[in-house]
Amino acid sequence: MKLCVALDMPTFEANIELARKLKKKDIWLKVGLRSYIRDGKKIVKEIKDINQNFKIFLDLKIYDIPNTMADAAESMANLGIDMFNVHASCGKEAMREVMQRVSNSKKPPIVLAVTALTSFDDEGFRKVYGENLEAKAAQFAKDAYESGLNGVVCSAFESRLIKSNTDENFITLTPGIRLKDSNDDQKRVATVEFAKKEMSDIIVVGRPVYNAKDPLHVVEEIIQRMEK
Ligand code: C5P
Q1: How many angstroms separate the CA atoms of 140 and 94, rounded?
Q2: SS (H, E, C) 69-136
Q3: Does ligand 1 have an atom closer than 6 angstroms to the CB of 125?
Q4: Which domain holds residue 24?
Q5: Of all helices (H) and strands (E), which one includes residue 174?
Q6: How buried is 61 (Cβ within 10 angstroms: 0-12 exposed, 13-18 middle, 19+ buried)?
Q7: Is the shortest distance between the CB of 204 and ligand 1 below 6 Å?
Q8: CB atoms within 10 A of CB 111
Q9: Whose CA is closest to atom 2 on ligand 1?
Q10: CATH of the domain at 150
Q11: Which residues make beta-bridge pairs with 87?
């Protein structure tokens, strides 16, 4: 299991300072909507300049018509990032086009599909999708698998089921990880130990790291708990 730290801080400088603090760690860094809209390519370059071995997950969760998604996927692959994601609800045709386009790039990034956002509880999910969260997330994961994607973004609660419905090597990346109880917007939160038990491949942690007084210490604690 690997750790991915979300660079969701309010400024470019704050994100870069955090990346510098973590530069010795074998981790992924997640560049999300906030940072990418504000800072663009600059943040990708700066992270790789700090440590070439940092892996970058560009978390833009794209959703559009197949041709537009494939064009965007090609542009993302050309940025030199290591992983990006799409919404599985864009459908199999769009996901297949994305994979086909990405396969032509020099170094194809890993492509994941978002199943259900971890901020949804079952009721909130049903209001939007009209279906049971767990069943629909499993269906989205199957669609992504059949479209040739490398894995999914899901909650730790669905990780094991998704693997058993697809393939053990089908990556599950799980946000909503908390070191202890919290009352923020994440509904389906899990601990590091639970995510590991449920076979998550990559855990994403944002606020518990970057809001800490000593982010490096928290990262070290998480890695230690991952390795136990
Ligand atoms: O601060 P926190 O640990 O909740 O950060 C989680 C990160 O993972 C955020 O950047 C959020 O956008 C992202 N994410 C998520 N749920 C998903 C996909 C991504 O929370 N399903």
Answers
A1: 13
A2: HHHHHHHHHCCCCCEEEEEHHHCHHHHHHHHHHHHCCCCCCEEEEECCCCCCCHHHHHHHHCCCHHHH
A3: no
A4: 2-227
A5: strand 171-174
A6: middle
A7: yes
A8: 24
A9: 206
A10: 3.20.20.70
A11: 114
Atom of ligand 1 nearest to the CA of 32: 10
**Nearest protein Cα to ligand 1, atom 21:** 117
- 6 forms bridges with which residues in the sheet? 30
Closest CA to 156 of 113, 116, 185: 116
What are the pLDDT tens digits along the chain (228 aa)? Answer: 999 999 999 999 999 999 999 999 999 999 999 999 999 999 999 999 999 999 999 999 999 999 999 999 999 999 999 999 999 999 999 999 999 999 999 999 999 999 998 889 999 999 999 999 999 999 999 999 999 999 999 999 999 999 999 999 999 999 999 998 666 777 778 999 999 999 999 999 999 999 999 999 999 999 999 999
Domain count, the chain: 1
N-term to C-term CA, the chain: 11
State the amino acid at position 152 in one-letter form. V
Contact between 33 and 86 (Cβ < 8 Å): no
Q: For ligand 1, is residue 124 a contact (CB within 6 Å)?
A: no
**Inter-CA distances, 170 with 29, 57, 210, Å:** 20, 17, 29
Distance of CA 77 to CAs 11, 149, 193, Å? 25, 14, 33
